[in-house]
Amino acid sequence: MSLFKYSSPTAFYPLAGKLVPWFAALAAIFAVIGLYLGLFVAPEDFQQGEVYRIIFIHVPAAWMAMVIYLAMAMYGVMALTFNTRLSAMMMEALAPTGAIFTALALWTGALWGKPTWGTYWAWDARMTSTLILLFLYIGYLALINAIEDKKRADKAGALLVIVGSVNVPIIYFSVKWWNTLHQGASVSVTASPKMAAIMLWAMLIMAIACWTYAITISLVRVRAIILERERGRSHSTRVANTLSATNIVAGS
Amino acid sequence: MTATLNSLTQIDSPVFQPERGFIVAMARDARLAARSKGEAIQALAFFVVVVSLFPLAIGPESALLKRIAPGVVWVAALLSVLLTLPRMFANDHADGTLEQLALSVYPLPTIVAGKIVAHWLMTGLPLAVLSPLLGLQFGLASGELAVLCVSLILGTPVLSMIGAIGAALTLGVRGGSILLALLVLPLYIPVLIFGAGAVEQAMVSIDFSANLSLLGAIVLLAGLAVPFAVAAALKISLD
Amino acid sequence: MAASSVSNSTQTAADTLRGSGLRLERGSRTIIDNISFGIASGQALILRGANGSGKTSLLRMLAGLTLPDAGVVLWNGEPLRALSATWRSVALYLGHNNALKDDFTAHENLADALSIDGISLEPSAQLEALEKVGLIDRRHVLARRLSQGQKRRIGLARLWLALSHAHHKPLWLLDEPTNALDSEGVLLFTELIGRHLGRGGIACIATHLALDIASRAKEMNLDSRIEVVR
Amino acid sequence: MNWAAFFSMDARAFYMWGSFGAFVVAIMLEITLVRLRGKRAQAEIGEELMADKAKRPAQ
User: Fold this and answer.
1) Domain limits of chain D?
2) Domain boundaries, chain A
3) pLDDT tens digits, residue range A61-80?
4) Out of A107, A115, A225, whose CB is closest to D22?
5) What's the pTM value of the predicted model, to 2 decimals?
6) Class for domain A19-243, per CATH?
7) Are the Cβ atoms of C28 and A233 closer than 8 angstroms?
8) For B175-222, how does the pLDDT look when each residue is reduced to its tens digit (9 = 90+)?
9) Please, which residues bridge with residue C133 across strands?
């Protein structure tokens, strides 16, 4: 089965290299279209005026924060069951991007909250869960950096993310429960404004832009990780040998 | 002399009694803890001291103290359990007995379950039993103290279970205890919310049974899944 | 003690332990590079080699603690990975450290080790084992206060009891079993390993001592193997 | 297209461009950091390849 051969890092390295420019181009195109639609075409919101346009990056960032964590959990399951090194490397490649999207979701949420509801931080259920998701990302990054042996770091990180992803819905439920307990169900703080069709499109396209961007960045990062894992290996197992065939030294 | 050898009792193969691993591990840890009582008492002392700091910091007026009581007691319980987590596997890892446990004929999840329950009996349960006494400092009424105690009895096992996963993952890692806190505290949040929430609702005499039943549900679910996760984490750390 | 006539173990079909193409990497260093071996009932594999040559890693791999990066361990033709449940009733692993709890006495440590292995024995048998290894009068001493040699003897007591127990574990994996033992202890160990092999058991021993069971022992020097490959 | 009105975003320029700006800065930062990481990894592996070739010129 030809696809399976790409599960080995050495075979995946050149493939990732070829895919990066395509995804980068896609991300750029979608971003331009999405921003154009969001900033210029979409009408003003009758309540919030112009500032609601932050939604076009806040919501996609929040989606990506969740999607990337679940993708990491999926790679984690593959890393633990099939013992494939590449899926663990993909997890490590995705984590920083996921953490950045989570932080951006929090940042843009706060900046959207101030003019709209008067406070930067309103302990809204979704925002609070996103904050906790950031803690989970930081926990993963701290764990894999604390363990020297890469093999153990991969598996430990995979198990942590799997346990974390099981907890995410429970955390969201408990935070929602806690939020309604304290603030009463009436105020749904981030009730997104009534969505005109064009707004939905703009947000969707921005989401795809973020998604293709995340793929591009994690492919570039996984290539760096594959090389880092090859450093110092004894010559006979030098993966770089095959890599040097793709004139790695020439920096392709 | 060989006669006594041959008369050794014959036991059926241990594989047929996997649950005995639970009893073996729990009894073993209980006896070990009895030998070094200090550790359990330290965690309890830490709990008392931390809870007593808040009135000193916030001032004696009882209205405010009463409002923050559930949160303070629960967070103090969380941190006290957190302190004792590294010891759950570290001692056995250091002297090599953890490998023998992993290679025991009893399945590792049963042994891990035994260790978790022993850890709970040593730290979580005493905290819960002591908590009503500390609640008095905050002016909680007897009914609310009872809810506080029950919520801690239901919640602390989950703290030991999730903590065990963190302890197993960070076994033998430099700076492991801070890392352990970083991994485990976010996962403690639902238990904290339901636990402290139950007591708050009791204080404003809203029906708090929902929170307690949710805590109970988490204990059961975690009880089924966590031993396997911890066993997997130990195998990864012992690799 | 004359070679006792204890041969109550039914002579099972010859067990075999084979490792083929075993490989282990730690970070960028290759600890075990393409090692293969095969031993059958009644044989012992003596692992020689300098410190850090992978003796302990190989033993841990055979015990099922360490996962090889490549290659497979076969017990009677079955891959170890599939056997993991029954494997723990086949292999007895004594690691480099003494696996003793400092807060337990010598006797308690022995009882603890046996209970972990699911072996329940009359206290009299345990005392007999302690007497055999010369610890009977120090059985109530905390392990913390025992000397290294005495701690090692608790391990020998375990081996002695494993020999006399009906569920005799056919495979012994021993990491430097004789270190810190005096000459008398080494003699005792040699006798135990002799009886183990005599009963059709298999042993894999990492040691630098010349054990006089040469007749049934194969040697493998892990250093030379690594040189050969590079 | 009145650019001044566009940038003022009915006087909430700070929040609007604070968010979009942070987004762009974060993306740019991440891209540069990843590329640097890739370059460094390639350089180190390249040196080792050279060192290997030097040690065994006749293959």
Assistant:
1) 3-55
2) 19-243
3) 999 999 999 999 999 999 99
4) A107
5) 0.89
6) mainly alpha
7) yes
8) 888 999 999 999 999 999 999 999 999 998 888 899 999 999 999 999
9) none
